[in-house]
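Exercise: predict the fold of this chain.
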Amino acid sequence: MAKDRIYVGKGDKELFEKIGTDNYFNFKHKNHKEKFMLAMAVGSNSGIENCIIEKKEELFFLKDLKDEDIALIIACALKKAETAEILSDMDKVYEIAENYAHIGVKLLADKVDTCATDTFEKEYEVSIMSLYEQLGIDS
């Protein structure tokens, strides 16, 4: 049976709530899907691999994903798998995204714990500007 939900590690839901508590990235009024997408991107870019979620709880339904969200999820799965064959198993694609989000939400929550709001956002602004420069994009 094909999966119909996105799952996160047991206890991760609280971390998703935490990254919205102090309105980091203006996430106070964002839903779980939007926070998941940020966490997945952060986890994918972290360099941390092979994280397996032992116990899971549901976060949201797959039907809530937009085409753009699915494209980002597929991009993260392709990065990890390094082959397009992964696309033949969308459950595996979503599992990779869940694992990256598991890593990412922990990193974001840790950042929230250790940084003041203005410092937190400034650090990410600097890293995004660096990526723009690497890509040769004017900001």
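Check your answer against the key: Residues 90-114 form the longest helix (25 residues).
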